[in-house]
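We emphasize that the prediction below concerns an isolated chain of 298 residues; any contacts that depend on oligomerization or on bound cofactors are therefore not represented. The input was used exactly as deposited, without trimming of termini.
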Amino acid sequence: MRLDRRDFLKSSGALLGTAVLGEEISTLATRKGLVAEAAGPAPVYEIYALKFAGPYTRKLAYVLYGKGWDENIEVNWYLWAIKGQDGFIVVDTGCGPTGARERKVIGYVSPVEALARIGANGSNVNKVILTHMHFDHVGGMEMFPKAFPKATFYVQKKEYDFWTKNPFSKRPQFNRDEAGIKATVELEGTDRLVLICGDQELMPGIEVLLSPGHTIGLQGVAVNTTTGTAIVASDLAHIHRALREDLTGTVFMDSLACLASYDKIKAKATSIDLIFVGHDVKLATDYPKVAEDVTRLV
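Result of the prediction step, given as a token string:
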């Protein structure tokens, strides 16, 4: 077959380009490998559930869509602590004293006091991740910036903007916590409040995962542990059974988004048993107790 000059130049250039590109890819892969090798394995963490209120009696249908209108179950309220070599990362702030008084919260313990039971205090809490801004998760912000002066606070920008800028958030059904939201807004513009857009690794072994549905910008926390990737999913679901039966609860902004988030979180976790959700009493009963109303999940 005759190959004219133009075709020869084209084919030679393509081969040369492929060779150069292949060399660059190989070099880049080698560099990445060296970086990964130098970095070493991600650190491992322990996860604790801290009950700060409850138990509350609810209809099963409240937490498992369409099932059990005549069946009662109990739920608890929690925040979580992730313990590493350099201190604690706290997930959510619970309910603050103002909200607890206004809502006559049953069995309430200050989340700051609950954290003190495992040695988490102002000197060793470096990060606080807000999964979402419902009253029982953000209300403790009226205490946390002062109680944990070294802490940086992380929330999804979508979530923050809804609760602080969208007038619909003031409708009665959203059950705002004004004290907690006000305290969060007071940090805006400082280096203590970080607004996140989507999934993001905060540090080796700790990643936040946007998982909307329950609220517009709920996020879970993926944690590297000795048994694999565990996820503090918060109110992605209220009870673990909802994940297994693929059903949302009733207090959800977007059920389709929630089901998509189920798939995302299940795919990320090493096992469905390593997904820890927001209000299941089993968090307090089925894991080793390490202090009053505190259990070690993994």
